[in-house]
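User: Thanks for the earlier help. One more: Glucosamine-6-phosphate deaminase. Can you show the sequence and predicted structure together?

Assistant: Of course, both are below.
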Amino acid sequence: MDDVEVIITPTPEQTGTVGADAVEALFAAKPDAVLGIATGSSPVGIYDELGRRVTAGRVSLAGGSAFMLDEYVGLPAEHPERYRNVVERDFVAKVDLPTDRVHGPDGQAGDLAAACASYEAAMAAAGGVDLQILGVGSDGHIAFNEPGSSLASRTRIKTLTSQTRRDNARFFGDDVDAVPRHCLTQGIGTIMAARQLVLVATGRHKAEAVHQLVEGPISAMWPATILQMHPHATVVVDEAAASRLALASYYKETYAAKPEWQGL
């Protein structure tokens, strides 16, 4: 695959269906696959649809494992917005992947740099990520790689921008001050090492980020643009998130004319 695959769906809900199709195809071919999972609102539709398919016996994730993209630093273990708890609620509880095979960076570690190195080593020991699910921030960040992040970065400590903290305040009762200022995040280089990337975005507030990601120049100021360099990256967006794409009609026509792409 030479270009970023762009799939524009009529509704936000259908982005989840397309993402779930990719995960189902992966586990059908490789039952012990390693899945990369993201938090935030964008991937929830994928997890909901996977849950329905697992319940129906259509797919099983039981033989696989998963690695989280990121984690806040300093949130107590019981905090509902600690990403480990979010993943348990939004993903693990819906599927048959054992919770002890879902791994995340340790945001409570005494030595955060060592925790980051350990996490990189654990992913390597697992054979790397087969398929990484991604969202994108309104400023173009992926995971917590904010604008200006090194495009070769690995898992590390990051300071969140004011924009990201404002975007995430909705999960903290709209209290920006309650949003942590630091996180541990897979780096852009780490993400790019996954064998397949599926990025999902919905809503008009993501339109500029999607435009830059697909049609803009590769730049550390829009970290998601690095997906243009990946050999198997798919961007799944609804009509609103696609509203700034100059080539939206082309992407729709190309996808419609390539039925073998459906199912990624």
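User: Great, one quick takeaway?

Assistant: The chain has a mean pLDDT of 94.
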